[in-house]
Amino acid sequence: MMRLPDAPWGIYVHIPFCQAKCSYCGFVSQVGNEKLQQEYVAALCREITAAGGDFSAFSVDSLFFGGGTPTVLPPDALAQILQIIRDNFSLSDDTEISIEANPGTVTAESLAALRRQGFNRLSLGVQSFDDAVLAAVGRLHRADQAKTAFRQARQAGFDNIGLDLIYGLPRQTAASWQSTLEQAVMLKPDHLSAYGLKLEEGTPLAVAVADGSLALPSEEAEETMYDVLNEFLPVAGLARYEIANYARPDRQCRHNLKYWRSLPFRGFGLAAHSFDRAQRFANTADISEYIERSQAGLSVETVRESLDEAVVIGEYVFTALRLIEGMRFDEFQQRFGQDFRQLFAEPLGRLNKMGLLEKTDQAVSLTPRGMKFGNQVFAEFLP
Predict the structure, then answer these.
(1) Residues in contact with 245: Cβ distance below 8 Å, sequence separation at least 6, in sequence order
(2) What CATH number should be reported for the domain whose range is 9-260?
(3) CATH 1.10.10.920, the chain: domain bounds
(4) From CA 262, how far away is CA 110, in angstroms rounded?
(5) Residue 41: its H or E element
(6) Predicted model pTM
(7) CATH code of the domain made up of 309-378
(8) Residue 3: band (very low, low, confident or very high) from pLDDT cuts 50, 70, 90
(9) Among the four residues 23, 164, 223, 304, which has the most C-beta atoms within 10 Å?
(10) Of the listed ranges 21-35, 145-159, 226-240, the one predicted with least confidence
(11) Residues of the chain with CATH 3.20.20.70
């Protein structure tokens, strides 16, 4: 039987607007005019207020504004949303309050305003420090803008700044990726996320690759980029703590750790998802429907799914194994009342022999080879 220990919640706020849609992006986002943005913020604040009564007793220690690009909204709109959350939820004194930003959407003044309002962690979507690569995927900023934005954020008082990078992009080479990493670490970020490109069906980039107008790096080149990444960053003081995430000591992203440790989180906004460890629920992904339902006083939730224990167990193992620390046997026993080593004895032994998993008396974790071929491992534990 699954046991649900008390734990602080995380809150995710989705801002679905961008200056322009990047060619590779499959997220729920769009270019929005001022009127649409105002209507959306009002609907979002109504949703947060309506949920506050049900969740006000729960402690919140991480809050994440994602998108889209949250910083396309003016700082006063972001301040309004943040205040509504403070009014309706119990934020701890040390709550991590993160916001994603495109370097082209911030200024020294707007960054200073965000810091004054209480945002204490900034995630800059840089993706590359190669202007040719940025242009190829429709990014509006250039490398120098990203560096300027980073320095302005430091001057504004942000002492926790992450950079987001992507490898496997068009016009990217192993040498240009090495250069991007070198330029990134010269800024001394506190956190760095680096994901291999996932080609999303129906995106402009997927269409361009299919018709031959753009080419992606070869599998061999992308594997070299992966290897360079994992050789270079630890030497630069950014320790790997998850398959695609690296941080300085005590600078791991607290909010994302909620996902990887299967801890509860509440999502607000368009297409936002929530998880209370027994069920998942999600909001509509249609912005007109979201606003109209909110204006009519109706719930914006359109999906609620009670999870079978086998599904919860599989997802718990899958997300825990993404972490370098792996999954502790005693924590699995505490949560599910079962011995992981008995429940999964066969795949555990086989994956260990294949060199993909390593096991101690306390935990199981991916080997470096397992990190590279994680999906093969995860499939063994999902129902």
Answers:
(1) 191, 192, 193, 194, 252, 253, 256
(2) 3.20.20.70
(3) 309-378
(4) 34
(5) helix 34-55
(6) 0.94
(7) 1.10.10.920
(8) very low
(9) 23
(10) 21-35
(11) 9-260
